[in-house]
Amino acid sequence: MPQYDQYKNRSVDIEFAAVEDFENLPYPERFTLIFITNGIIKAQLNERPIEISAPGVLCLSMDDKLQVINKDNISAQSFSFHPDFFKTSRIFETQTYKPSNLKIQVGLSLFQRDNSQTGILHITSKAFPQLFEWFFILGTEVYAHSNALWVCRIKKYLIQILRLLEDLNHQIEQSPIDLALDYIHTNYPGKVTLEDLTNCAHLNRISLNEMFQKRCGCTAMGYLLSYRLKVAGDLLVHTDMTLDEIARSIGFQYDTYFIKQFTAKREMSPTAFRNTHRNLQHY
Predict the structure, then answer these.
(1) pTM
(2) How far is CA 208 from CA 131, 170, 277, in A?
(3) Could you tell me which residues come within 8 angstroms of residue 266 by beta carbon, excluding any fewer than 6 positions away?
(4) Helix, strand, or coil (residue 202)
(5) How far, in Å, CA of 16 to CA of 126, rounded?
(6) Which of 245, 241, 236, 238 is nearest to 269 (CA)?
(7) What is the C-alpha separation between 54 and 141, in angstroms, rounded?
(8) Helices assigned H by DSSP within the chain
(9) What is the DSSP string of 80-124?
């Protein structure tokens, strides 16, 4: 059943299952993330045999067909959301909430099917603790409805989960730069130093930056900054988080420094970026 937001008198098309039993998947009109934390499951996904061992994530769209064959000591939780979940934003002049044409792009590839995209993601040991924490907070927010910003916080953590999963999905080979990218995508909300990246990639600073320049067109720390600002862009458009909340959630200690860096890279302030992408034309 959809959640009801008593603070804003609206229905929110999301559900969280702390214990996913795999009996009713996929959920109608929902994208679903199933986080498998223990055990092994064998199934048929769209008539193809699959096997997922923990830790792993299964991404299902409403059009997928899943038939479970065997569950061995399985523990899993799931979060499902309507594709239009991100199509609600606030008109700041009136403080009201209305549907819009805003669409989240990050993570949608996880629910598309082709020969290279199966919807099955194996989670690295480095990514598992962060993903586990974010899923825990996501479930807590769904159940608690602690204050008027509970939906906003869910959007925040969902954006971060989808971006992490999408980036992990793109990392097929674990070259030294992939190890560094994995570290950035997992740890960007906290403090990340160049020494952290050289240690995980087992390279010196010069070699690491040369590899980043060749592959990403910037230094390692430059990539970290651009990645944080990319996440910030999603949070600005799809949530009502304050600039200070966004800054701290992506690894900046002060919102003033975040604003300075965002403005320099995007050639507009975070507030202008948010307003531009929430232009009244989309209502």
Answers:
(1) 0.77
(2) 26, 20, 36
(3) 229, 233, 273
(4) coil
(5) 24
(6) 236
(7) 24
(8) 127-144, 150-170, 176-187, 194-201, 205-216, 220-238, 243-249, 255-266, 270-277
(9) EE-TTTT-EEEETTTTEEEE------TTGGGG--SSS--SEEEPP
User: Letter for the amino acid at 187?
Assistant: N
Amino acid (one-letter) located at 219: T
- Write down the CATH number for the domain with range 1-164: 2.60.120
State the CATH class of domain 171-283. mainly alpha
Strands 10-12 and 66-81, bridge-based pairing? unpaired
For residue 173, what pLDDT is reported? Answer: 52
Through-space distance between the first and last CA atoms of the chain, rounded to whole angstroms: 27
H-helix or E-strand spanning residue 33 = strand 31-45
Domain range summary for the chain, segments of one domain joined by +: 1-164, 171-283
How far apart, in whole angstroms, are the C-alpha atoms of residue 75 and residue 171?
26
How many C-beta neighbours within 10 Å does residue 4 have? 12
Counting every residue written for the chain, the total comes to 283
**Intrachain domains 1-164 and 171-283 with the same fold:** no
Distance CA 95, CA 147 (A): 16
Task: Give the β-pairing of 10-12 and 88-91.
Answer: unpaired
Question: What span, in angstroms and rounded, lies between the C-alpha atoms of 39 and 55?
Answer: 8
Share of the chain above pLDDT 90, in %: 51
* pLDDT tens digits, one per residue of 31-46: 999 999 999 998 888 8
**What is the mean predicted confidence (pLDDT) over 262-281?**
85
Please give the mean pLDDT across all residues of the chain.
86
Q: Are strands 66-81 and 88-91 parallel, antiparallel or unpaired?
A: unpaired
